[in-house]
Amino acid sequence: MAYKILILGGTTEARELAARLAGEPRYETKLSLAGRTARPAGQPVPVRVGGFGGAEGLAAHLAGKGIDLLVDATHPFAARISANAAEAARVTKVPLLALRRPGWERGKLDRWTEADTVAAAVVALGERTRRVLVTLGRQELAPLRAHPHHFYLIRSVDPVDPPLDLPDAQYLLARGPFGEDDERRLLIDHRIDAILSKNSGGAATYGKIAAARGLGIEVVMVRRPPKPVVPTVGTVDEAVAEIAHRAASGKNRGV
Ligand SMILES: NC(=O)c1ccc[n+]([C@@H]2O[C@H](COP(=O)([O-])OP(=O)(O)OC[C@H]3O[C@@H](n4cnc5c(N)ncnc54)[C@H](OP(=O)(O)O)[C@@H]3O)[C@@H](O)[C@H]2O)c1
């Protein structure tokens, strides 16, 4: 019988992991998406979309579908689903593996100001009018409204609809990955002097951080929220190896 894997996704890594598992007949892999993105990128395995109804709903899903392994490959800032995954795994005794990309580290030449929340990050931009590239994701933009004195260039995958009530904002629709050269061009063309970013980690959106370093531009960086302590790997390669090991050793329950 195939080893049933449910990947909680919404990240590049989740898609890459699904692609690596897709060709293996010993696995039956499904990818779960929250449904926030209107047209998600094509996925290499069957997909289910939408919330489960909290930890209880997820537990019922795991038990009902006979899942052998739950992989939490959600975004580092998606705190609730990871807490639900840990709780559902605990209750059902379905093993859980987290795939969490490491955060970006500040280098000597980086000009970072760190903040714990988006609201605190916007305050950290200060009183003086700045020209800010905003790469927070469209669900996180509400705190900008309390600081209308900046120019905001707001980049998102889906349109910000309705647009924010801000006197000087411009919207840019784009889906990563974003290379350093293109990011430098964007920063120069729009005369950006600050970037609002989450510490998402990963290569796909690091281009802006590298470009900002080269241009001496400040990055106001939102720190990651805490996530539950569970067995964790940092890369897709490590996840593939760990899954192969677990499937081979029949380690199906109680890890
Ligand atoms: N937060 C970010 O910065 C960010 C950035 C890029 C991508 N994403 C992706 O976007 C999704 C939503 O992020 P979020 O910050 O809104 O999450 P969240 O606050 O942790 O989760 C909110 C609720 O959304 C549902 N949900 C989240 N991820 C799901 C998944 N993979 N499959 C099914 N349901 C899911 C769950 O609903 P129920 O309780 O009803 O099950 C969860 O309680 C995540 O999958 C994440 O990987 C997030």
Summarize the structure.
The chain has 255 residues and is α/β, with parallel strands linked by helices. The protein has seven helices and twelve strands. It has a six-stranded parallel β-sheet, sandwiched between helices. Strands 6-11-10-7-8-9 form a six-stranded parallel β-sheet.
Report strand order across the widest sheet: 3-2-1-4-5-12
Note the gap between the termini: 20 Å
Poorly predicted tracts of residues: none
Q: What is the number of helices?
A: 7
> SSE order in H/E notation?
EHEEHEHEEHEEEHEHEEH
How much β-strand is present in the residues? 15-25%
From the 3D coordinates, which CATH architecture of the largest domain would you assign?
3-Layer(aba) Sandwich
Query: What is the strand tally?
Result: 12
Instruction: Provide the gyration radius in Å.
Output: 20 Å
What class would the helix/strand composition place it in? alpha/beta
Which CATH class of the largest domain applies here? Alpha Beta
CATH superfamily of the largest domain: Glycogen Phosphorylase B
Largest sheet: 6 strands, parallel
